[in-house]
Amino acid sequence: MANPLQALRDRMAEYHIDAYLIPTADFHGSEYVGDHFACRRYVSGFTGSAGTLLVFPHWAGLWTDGRYFLQAEAQLQGSGIRLMKMGQPGVPTIEGFLRSSLQPGQTLGFDGRCVDARTGRRYHQLTKQLGAKMNHERDLVGEIWPDRPPLSAQPAWLLEEAYAGLSREEKLRQVRGDLAAQGAEVLLLTTLEDIGWLLNLRGGDIACTPVVLAYLALTQEGCLLFAQGAAFSPEVLAALEADGVSLRPYEGIYDYARRLAQGQTVMLDTRRVSTTLLTSIPTGVTLRDRPNPTELRRAIKNPVEQTNLRQAHLADGIALTRFMYWVKTQAGAPGLTELSAADQLEAFRRADPHYRQPSFDPILAAGDHSAVIHYSPTPASDRPIPAQGFLLADTGGHYDTGTTDCTRTYALGELTHQQKVCYTSVLQGNLALADAVFPAGCPGSVLDYAARQPLWARGLDFNHGTGHGVGYLLSVHEGPQSIRWRAAGGRETPLAPGMVTSNEPGVYFDGDYGIRLENLLLCVEKAFPTGDFLGFETLTLTPFDVDAILPEQLSPREKALLNAYHAQVYQAIAPHLPPQEAAWLETATRPL
To answer: pTM for this one?
Structure first.
């Protein structure tokens, strides 16, 4: 049988499709996708979590971002697929490449269920301008993929109000109020985090993201949940039905959309719903294209969630601190590898009764692996952890009490002066962002300078965002807020009290080493008589590595911030450690 790339080209020729686009996407715009949706991975062999493959009869290219340049270069070797490094000089966007490559009369194809409606509209406009055509009705990869994994239907479960902070009934009432305020009769939700938040519903259909594959249609009179019945126990169904939520077949969302009545007003977000779903709606239906009202509501954690999150980070801090002690004392021991270290950290987390699962695949990177921004060890790449250089550990967990995400870079032996300079520069950026005070209404792009300036001052930078929103037992990467000077899409959501955002500056030297330091920040109000100002409370509780710090590089203010943070870590974590580890922690958090 032909390899997947050639089989795809053969099928393209059969349907007279001249360019075929394969995003990393499911039907819901999820960041991570289940095995059933791993079409780009199946055809290209690239396993990173982000990337888009574009295939022509005699050329193919994979677009991915800076996190994955090194990984993609290695995995695409010999594939005949060219790596297109997004954001780099001379590299066109996908749409720019299509504009220069697609000829009049040719056809651009993609599976419209996996491309959001706003992007689908742009492709339609582009093909029209070029005198070309668009076909979004063919899942060509599905046609050539033997033994494709089935859709996941893992058991759905309900998040108790003690953890969610608000009942399902109250959330439905609030969102129905948002719907009425927009003058709409129907709300269509397709993003799994929004549906999970609204219904206090969780599941296991995406790795590291406890969500249920589903669509939702909300009216003032009822709520239809389109999902796979096999995922729901009688008890979960009864609880949903008690709040007016009725289960329908997963694929039934398209018939529902086609039967919407002329004159009805439907609210949806074209950045979220798929091209196929939008084009299923009759032309006589009025559309209100707005951000999902659930998006901002779930981003602003309620008081119960905030209290719970502090407990989650205490539990996570205990695990992370025990791991720090363990790895610094075990470095160089026989059998200690990236994978075995990840297993040990997972064991430390599992000691907490509220722990459920990792919030993403663990990044444990020794030596030059730490220069690969989102490297995750595999059996093929696993290597010993020596008693030298850096170990970068970027990991997180889902607890009943919330979601965590933390990065520490540990010194496992003697470091060079330059390594310490770079570590301290990254630390300075982390401390500066955590210390920021800003007026209400300020977007994250304004704050990005604080985290990058200590690196920029040395001619250094990092090729990823500084901060992403974090969900509550949903996705570890959630909007709508972010902290990045290249604001995505030109529309920013201001930071607001209750939002949880990461703080993760870094620096990376290809083939040598990388450093990243990440805490999660809770946005809080600051009391000033002159107006409404905001700042941050650091949730993460585990030491930075003082063995990697150049104290003389820190200003008095920076030393005070670091010492205060370490005092907080020691006070919170030490009582939960065995005596030997508590004694070590006192040294590890010593004032500078």
So the answer is: 0.93
Please, are residues 43 and 21 in contact by the beta-carbon 8 Å criterion? no
Enter the tokens of residue 452. Answer: 């990058």
CB 477 within 8 A of CB 468: yes
Residue 390: is its pLDDT beyond 90?
yes
The two structure tokens encoding residue 277: 């779903």
DSSP 207: T
Over the stretch 322-357, which tens digit does the pLDDT of each residue have? 999 999 999 999 999 999 999 999 999 999 999 999
**CA distance linking residue 201 with residue 197, whole number of Å:** 7
Position 218 scores a pLDDT of: 98
Are the C-beta atoms of 542 and 324 separated by less than 8 Å? yes
Estimate the crossing angle of helix 556-573 against helix 579-588, to 10 degrees. Answer: 170
Contacts of 20 (CB under 8 A, 6+ apart): 8, 12, 54, 55, 108, 109, 110, 140
Stretch 450-467: mean pLDDT: 96
Q: Which residues pair with 104 in a beta bridge?
A: none
SS3 418: helix
- Angstrom distance (rounded) from CA 369 to CA 341: 14
Pairwise CA distance, residues 124 & 66, whole Å: 28
Measured in degrees and rounded to the nearest 5, phi and psi for residue 467 equal: -150, 140
In which element (H, E) is residue 189 found? strand 186-189
The order of strands in the sheet holding 133-135 is: 82-85, 60-64, 52-55, 19-23, 107-109, 133-135
Cα 569 to Cα 153: distance, rounded to the nearest angstrom: 41
Angle at which helices 444-456 and 417-434 cross, to 10°? 160
Residue 78, token pair as written in the block: 């010999």
Cβ-contact 395, 345 below 8 angstroms:
yes
Omega before 480 cis (within 30°)?
yes
Instruction: Say if residues 260 and 102 touch (Cβ distance below 8 Å).
Output: no
Summarised one tens digit per residue, pLDDT across range 190-244 is: 999 999 999 999 999 999 999 999 999 999 999 999 999 999 999 999 999 999 9
| Cα torsion angle, 440, 520, 48, 193, sign | negative
Strand-pair partners of 20: 55, 109
Alpha-carbon span 357 to 302, nearest angstrom: 23
Burial profile 297-329: b = 16 or more Cβ within 10 angstroms, e = fewer: bbbebeeebbebbeebbbbbbbbbbbbbbbbbe
Q: Which two tokens stand for residue 28?
A: 């819901």
Tokens 């939960």, located at residue? 576
